[in-house]
Design brief:
two-stranded parallel ribbon, flat, mainly alpha, single chain, 10 helices
């Protein structure tokens, strides 16, 4: 028999003394196990966790602010990098302060990208002490792979998706209209495409987690390849902000390749 008692006042302490004197004639071999729980220890542990989380959160915010400021000081070079895929396009400022606010958005976007690895590292440092060995073996590789896949998605989008989409829009109707674009709207288009592609590249990481948790096997993933083609096509149409077929074909092909690669990794892990 197990009794859990919280010692917070004298009356409860007296109750413990009485329980120790109880007799069990029908079951003389019965034992009473008293577990004394100090509520203050739990509250102190909770406060320590909250304090640690607050410190790490403040540290990540400071890194984000510093990264944003550094990017803003050299924002002209970053703007040239974003403008590079738009060959033959002239950018205009249609309202006062449009370029200034667009520059701030670019600096904040780049600051988030630069500080995200540090934020992920701080999150892992906070979670790892409370994880078991098996959970650590899952979380650490998946987190590292997820970060690599995200930046791989950014690179794929910048070097393949963005040029393909811009080339389609520039060439379409080039004999009728001149390509004069708003820089603010152009950056919004690029940022959405980059971020959406980075998230789409998380497919293998999700598959590995499902495989390690024994929810879905690699063979089962491969058996649904027909449905996967349809889903990848729909996702490509939803993720890409443009409606041109070239961008959607590239995105759906990349998603399908990632899915098949993730299924192959799960099969190798199972072996």
């Amino acid at each position: 028999m197990s009794v859990v008692i919280n010692l917070d006042n004298y009356n409860k302490l007296t109750m413990v003394t009485k329980l120790l004197t109880l007799q069990y004639p029908k079951k003389p071999t019965s034992k009473i196990t008293l577990t004394l729980v100090n509520e203050g220890d739990d509250e102190m542990a909770l406060s320590e966790h909250i304090e640690e989380f607050s410190q790490r959160l403040v540290f990540c915010l400071i890194i984000l602010i510093l990264a944003t400021i550094i990017c803003f000081t050299d924002v002209r070079e970053i703007v040239r990098i974003f403008q590079a895929p738009a060959i033959g396009v002239k950018f205009l400022q249609f309202s006062p302060g449009e370029y200034f606010f667009a520059s701030f958005k670019i600096a904040a976007f780049c600051g988030i990208l630069l500080s995200s690895p540090i934020a992920l590292y701080q999150l892992l440092l906070y979670l790892i002490p409370g994880l078991t060995k098996n959970e650590r073996n899952i979380i650490l590789p998946v987190s590292l792979g997820s970060g690599v896949l995200f930046f791989a998605g950014l690179a794929f989008s910048y070097f393949f998706l963005v040029p393909a989409a811009l080339k389609f829009f520039i060439s379409y109707g080039s004999e009728v209209v001149e390509p004069f674009w708003s820089f603010d709207q152009y950056f919004d288009f690029i940022a959405v495409l980059l971020f959406a592609t980075g998230l789409a590249f998380q497919v293998p990481a999700i598959q590995v987690v499902l495989g390690l948790l024994k929810i879905v096997s690699g063979q089962t993933m491969l058996s649904y390849w027909k449905y996967t083609i349809v889903i990848c096509t729909i996702l490509a149409a939803v993720i890409t902000p443009s409606t041109d077929p070239i961008t959607q074909i590239l995105m759906s092909s990349a998603l399908l390749a990632l899915y098949l690669g993730g299924a192959g990794i799960v099969i190798l892990i199972d072996k």
